[in-house]
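Supplementary Methods, section 5.1.

A reviewer requested that the exact input to the structure prediction be made available. We therefore reproduce it here, unchanged from the version used in the analyses.
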Amino acid sequence: MTEGTRAEIRSTTRSDTSLMRIEGEITSGSEKPLMEAFAKAVDAGARTVILDFGALDYMNSGGIGLLVTLLVRAQRQNKRLMAIGLNEHYLQIFSLTRLDEAIGIHDTEAAAIAAAG
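The structure derived from this sequence is encoded token-by-token as follows.
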């Protein structure tokens, strides 16, 4: 875990899909590990990045802002973002911020991988 961010991001890439498991907290202090994990996934050939929020403990407005930044970065590089593991609270936040319109939300990893095609 990176000190000061309280976030750990574990990435695995298979074929053209990467899974980023987010553990801990996503705040504005999480920018470095989040962006580095995304860059690593893209460098490994990922066209779709699945964000797994199943182990997320906390995300504040700074974290939402980071997701918007990540989305913009992904769109500029013609990459797709998907999300799994969102609890009801974060599903509501994604809906309120309209992130659910730009990031595909799925119930399971298998469903997200299938949607990635």
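The two ends are 32 Å apart (CA to CA). These observations are discussed further in the main text.
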